[in-house]
Amino acid sequence: MAFELPDLPYSHDALASLGMSRETLEYHHDLHHKAYVDNGNKLIAGTEWESKTLEDIVKGTYASGAVAQSGIFNNASQHWNHMQFWEMMGPNGNSMPGELAKAIDESFGAVEKFKQDFSAAGAGQFGSGWCWLVKNADGSLAVTKTENGVNPLCFNQTALLGCDVWEHSYYIDFRNKRPAYLANFLDNLVNWENVASRM
Ligand code: MN3
User: Fold this and answer.
1) How remote is the CA of residue 45 from the centroid of ligand 1, in Å?
2) 100-120: per-residue pLDDT in tens?
3) Sequence-separated (6 or more) residues with CB below 8 Å from residue 31
């Protein structure tokens, strides 16, 4: 089915005092995300993917491994990734629900250790990509990093939290300081209730 650019779930100014400016959201949502939507729609038109759900397009084109599918995969996965990313942040979602904190404690030993692992994954992703908190099929939690548009759907994992570490996500507000962007993301931007709802 055709991709559609969703509105941000908050105003373009809503995160400015938390370290993500209006200018970043205008470029990132209104231009970058829109380009994935527009290019994806052009590429799936007239193909077998046109009638499929976004999740099926991401999984199917990744599993095919075909170079000819890579353009569709890249745009579809980035469209999906950004829809999750906007929802995973918020202007006032800064306290972690107890059920989520307990699951993180059990998997990582402590919330602070999880944050260290997540930040290290994001800082250590060479080039463009994402870092994630995922739930595996067996229920365990893990931190991962992926290149470009690759995401947890490709590995049958549930994405609980994802952070975009493409330069377009942080260069306006943090310049080249990706670790500072990641620390601010975890401390100020994450909507932990949204993360918990994905469990
Ligand atoms: Mn992005």
Assistant:
1) 23
2) 999 999 999 999 999 999 999
3) none
